[in-house]
Amino acid sequence: MALPRHKDLRRMVRFAKYLVGKERFVIKFDYQKDNGHIDVWTDTDYAGCRETRKSTSGGLIKLGSHLIRTWSATQRVIALSSGEAEYYGLSRVSVKR
Question: Residues 66-86: pLDDT tens digits?
Answer without folding.
Answer: 888 899 888 888 988 988 988
